[in-house]
C-alpha cells in the first residue's frame, strides 16, 4: 500500500519515555488515530544525550509494532543544552542578505564553530519601533541532532521533520487554543528539561529550556526514601490518587518550590529585561505537572492565572476506540508530541 506523503506521526523521544500520536485530518479539524507511550530503561537518555542506543531503538520499534502504526514518516524534536534559540533585531534587508547575515549573527551566541550546528531562522511578523525586523534563530548541535535522526532511521522510520520542543508546544497551542490573545506562557515540565515558551497573541516571543524536571523528584525519593528507580517512578505517578506520607509531602513541597521558583525567575527576567508587562496566564503540562499542589504554588508565586494545558481540547476522538479516562490521564504528557503530530512534511523545522 502506498501511504500519502501527507501522513506523519508525532514521535517524542523523551528522557524517560517515548510517546506517539497519529492524527488524521478531517473537515472539522483533527481526529485521533493512534496514541501511546513506552517507558525507556533507566538512563537510556541522560541530559538529552542517547546513552543506550539499542534500548531506545527497541523501545521505539516495539511502540510502533504494538500500536500497529503503518506510517513511516515521523516528526521528532530536541531540547536542552544542545539547542540555542535567539531573537535578534536586524535592519530591513532582502531575503538573500538576511540569509547571508544569519551565520555571522549566530556566531556571537554559540561556543562552537558554525560548521558544528544545524540552524534555521524565521522572521517574526511586523517591525520594531526603530523600523528593524525581529528574527528568531534556532541552532542545534549536529552530533546530538544526528544521534536522534540516525536512531529513528535505524528502526525503519523516516524523520521528515526535526523540531524543537518549545515550538512543538506552540504548534499544539495554536491548534487547540486558536483564539489566543495577550501574553501567555506555555510550560512543559518533562523528566529532565522544563520547556518555557512565552507567546504574544499566539506568536512566540521568548523561549527557554530549564534543565530541571521530574527526575529531580525521582532522585530525591531514591535517596531519602530508599526506593529503587522503578518504585520511585510508580510512587510519583500515583501521588495524586490519595493521601501521602509526611516524608513524601516534604519532598513534594520541595519539588514544587524548586520548579516553580525556576519558572518564576524566567518570567521575572522576561518581564524586567525584554517586555513591559508581566505574563498574566500560564498553561502547564508535562508528566510532572500533576504533582499535587504545583499549580497552586506556581499561581501564588507568579500571581498569574495558572491552568493545565489540554492538547486534546480541539482533537476529536471516538470514545468507543479511546477510553476518555485514559486520554484525560495521559493528556499532561502529550503536549509536545501532539504539536509534532500536527506538523506536515515540508514545514520549516
In short:
Helix content is 36%, strand content 29%. The protein contains ten helices and 16 strands. It has helices at 53-66, 95-106, 142-154, 165-176, 214-225, 229-237, 246-274, 294-302, 324-330, 335-341; strands at residues 9-13, 17-26, 29-39, 45-46, 49-50, 73-78, 83-90, 117-123, 133-141, 158-164, 183-189, 194-200, 203-210, 281-285, 305-308, 315-316.
Structure write-up:
- This protein is an alpha/beta fold and 349 residues long.
- The chain has two domains: 153 residues, Nucleotidyltransferase, domain 5 (2-Layer Sandwich), CATH 3.30.420.40; 132 residues, Nucleotidyltransferase, domain 5 (2-Layer Sandwich).
- The chain contains ten helices and 16 strands.
- The strands form four sheets. Strands 10-6-1-2-3-16 form a six-stranded mixed sheet, sandwiched between helices. It has a five-stranded mixed sheet with strand order 13-12-11-14-15, with helices on both faces. It has a three-stranded antiparallel sheet with strand order 7-9-8.
- Strand 14, helix 8 and strand 15 form a beta-alpha-beta unit.
- The chain is globular.
Amino acid at each position: 500500500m502506498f501511504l500519502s506523503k501527507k501522513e506523519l506521526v508525532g514521535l517524542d523521544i523523551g528522557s524517560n519515555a517515548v510517546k506517539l500520536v497519529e492524527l488524521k485530518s478531517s473537515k472539522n479539524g483533527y481526529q485521533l488515530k493512534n496514541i501511546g507511550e513506552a517507558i525507556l530503561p533507566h538512563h537510556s537518555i541522560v541530559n538529552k544525550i542517547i546513552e543506550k542506543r539499542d534500548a531506545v531503538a527497541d523501545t521505539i520499534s516495539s511502540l510502533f509494532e504494538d500500536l500497529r502504526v503503518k506510517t513511516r514518516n515521523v516528526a521528532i524534536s530536541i531540547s536542552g543544552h544542545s539547542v540555542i534559540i535567539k531573537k535578534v533585531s536586524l535592519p530591513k534587508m532582502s531575503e538573500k542578505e538576511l540569509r547571508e547575515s544569519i551565520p555571522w549573527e549566530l556566531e556571537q551566541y554559540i561556543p562552537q564553530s558554525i560548521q558544528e550546528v544545524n540552524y534555521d531562522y524565521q522572521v517574526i511578523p511586523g517591525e520594531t519601533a526603530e523600523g528593524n525586523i525581529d528574527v528568531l534563530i534556532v541552532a542545534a548541535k549536529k552530533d546530538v541532532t544526528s544521534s536522534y535522526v540516525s536512531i529513528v532511521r535505524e528502526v525503519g522510520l523516516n524523520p521528515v521533520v526535526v523540531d524543537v520542543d518549545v515550538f512543538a508546544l506552540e504548534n499544539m497551542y495554536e491548534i487547540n487554543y486558536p483564539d489566543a490573545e495577550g501574553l501567555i506562557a506555555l510550560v512543559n515540565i518533562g523528566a529532565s528539561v522544563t520547556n518555557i515558551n512565552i507567546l504574544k497573541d499566539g506568536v512566540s516571543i521568548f523561549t527557554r529550556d530549564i534543565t530541571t524536571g521530574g527526575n529531580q523528584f525521582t532522585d530525591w525519593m531514591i535517596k531519602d526514601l530508599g526506593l529503587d528507580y522503578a518504585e520511585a517512578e510508580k510512587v510519583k505517578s500515583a501521588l495524586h490518587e490519595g493521601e501521602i506520607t509526611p516524608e513524601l509531602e516534604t519532598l513534594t513541597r520541595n519539588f514544587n518550590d524548586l520548579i516553580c521558583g525556576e519558572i518564576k525567575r524566567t518570567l521575572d527576567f522576561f518581564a524586567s529585561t525584554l517586555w513591559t508587562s508581566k505574563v498574566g496566564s500560564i498553561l502547564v503540562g508535562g508528566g510532572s505537572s500533576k504533582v499535587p499542589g504545583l499549580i497552586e504554588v506556581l499561581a501564588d508565586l507568579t500571581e498569574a492565572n495558572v491552568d493545565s494545558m489540554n492538547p486534546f481540547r480541539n482533537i476529536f476522538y471516538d470514545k468507543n476506540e479511546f477510553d476518555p479516562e485514559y486520554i484525560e490521564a495521559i493528556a499532561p504528557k502529550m503536549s509536545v508530541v501532539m504539536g509534532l503530530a500536527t506538523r506536515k512534511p515540508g514545514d520549516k523545522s
